[in-house]
Structures are given as structure tokens and as C-alpha cells.
Amino acid sequence: MPQLISRLPSVLQEAATVVTSAVLVKLLLYSAVYIAAGLPSQLSVTAGFPCQLLAGSFCALCWAAEVNIVQIVYTHRVRQFQEDSGGDPSALLIPALLDSKDPLLQNAALQDVCHLAEAKGPEAWRRKMVFAQQSGEAWQQLGTVCLDEVQQMITTAAAILPQATGQAQLTEAAPQQPPSEMAPAASAKWNAPVLTKKALILSAAQPSELRAWRLQSHRQRIVWSMRALAAFADAAATEDKNGVVHFPPQADCPDLATIMATLLSALQVLQVLALLLLFLRRC
After folding, report:
1. pLDDT tens, 231-247?
2. What are the two backbone dihedrals, phi and then psi, of residue 176, each rounded to the nearest 5 degrees?
């Protein structure tokens, strides 16, 4: 509400501009119609003008107010997840972050995680408390959500590239070899991002157009997640006294190597995708 009150002058200005433009257009059109019909042009001014002016002003005011409300909702930082200094910074944040049934609330929680990770000075107490938990439970939940978001982006973006389709067709067309003649399986790489089951299912089920649309619609969530992971990794060098990021106490807890490998993989796939889109635009 305070943000809307502070924007009230601009709301009134936008509404006045719309109403004035509409009134001028109405007078010009009515005058032309009345003159063409052989009637006095003065009648066009009094033909339902007061009611039209009131109705138009009300509609324009509501429209300008709704535009500003939508801007506030989607751009203003939600502070309802932040406890007072000394409280648990993740008590309200993590439940909202895991609530996949409410995307708007989850987006606000991801934005708050990004601010939590990038905080400087006195506001960094929330990030320090996440690192201070020896169990690593808070970091495990915050890091996993951000890591899953980036890994889904990597899988979705890589599936758009033409190399993925070519490899899939080559695999399907190749004759099956007996197990004795098959090449040994490649050893697992320590720096390869682990893709979640949900990301693989999403990549296989959607065509390229829907994958591109998903990247476009989730771009802000991806940016917040990448910024949060980078900020957590940077702050862990000086604030992670318990080693929850360097040496996670839980097996499914994201570590520093996984974060770096995922961010580098994201950078690589986005660079290739950007070059592909640039090539397609020039064609």
C-alpha cells in the first residue's frame, strides 16, 4: 500500500492523459459526424458528455492503478520471509521456496534467497546464520532448490541445440551390438552436474518450441538461482566456518565443486545457445 500511495501522482497523471486524449478524439469524431449530418457541431459537446467523462475517468484511473499494482507485485521485494535480527532466517523462507503449487510465492522466495546470498554489511547476518548451522539443513534446502533450477535450465537449453537431436537419431539408427562387443561405460566425471529425474522427464516430454518457451518464462528464476549460487560460493570462502559448503555433512547437500561445475555448464550451454540464435537471426 505505501508503494501505491507513493505512485499516486503518476497514476493520476496517466489517467488524466488518457482521459484528455479520449475527450479530444471524441470531440473531433463527433464534430465530423454532426457536420456531415448537417447538424450544429455544438451538439456534439453536450451529447452525453458528462456521463462519458465520468465513466472514462473512472476506467482510466482503474487502469492506471492496476498497471502500477502489477508492477509493484512483480518488482518489489517481498520481505515477509525475513525475521528480525537473531531469528531463524529460513523459518518462513524455506516453506515458501518449496511450495510449488504457488509459483508467485515461490518466485518471491527465490528473489529473497538471491538477496540473502548477495547481502553486504549488517544485512549479511541471514547468510551467516545459514552457514552457522552445523547440520547444514538450511543450506541443503536453499542450495538444492537453486541448483535444481539451474540444472533444469541446462537440460532444457541443451535439448534445444541441434546436436542433441542428431545424437538421438544416430543412437536410434545404430544397430544394437551384443553385450560382449559394447564399449565399456565411460567413467563418471567429478565435475559433471547431476541432472535430476524431473529435469530429464521435462526435457524428453516437450518439443523444442515448448522448451524455448520454458526458458523464456523461467528466465528470472534462473537468474536469481545462478546469482544466489555464485554469491553463496563466494561468501563460503570466509563465512563457512563449519564447512557446510566445502565439506557437506549430508550426501545430498550441494558442495562447492557441484556449484562451480553447474555454473560453468550453464555458461557453456548458454553461450552455444546464444550463438545458435544469432546464426538463425542472420539466416
Report:
1. 999 999 888 888 888 88
2. -75, 135
Q: What integer best gives the mean pLDDT of the chain?
A: 74
Q: Residue 188 burial by CB count (10 A; 0-12/13-18/19+): exposed, middle or buried? A: exposed
Residues 6+ apart with CB under 8 A from 131: 139, 235, 236, 239, 240, 241, 242, 244, 245
Q: What are the backbone angles phi and psi of residue 76, rounded to the nearest 5°?
A: -80, 135
- CB atoms < 10 A from the CB of 146, how many? 28
Give yes or no for a contact between 193 and 265, defined as CB atoms under 8 angstroms apart: yes
Q: How far is CA 114 from CA 91, 93, 102, 111, in A?
A: 16, 12, 19, 5
Q: How far apart are CA 150 and CA 137, in angstroms?
A: 20
Q: Measuring CA to CA, how many Å separate 81 from each of 74, 147, 176, 186, 224?
A: 16, 20, 55, 45, 16
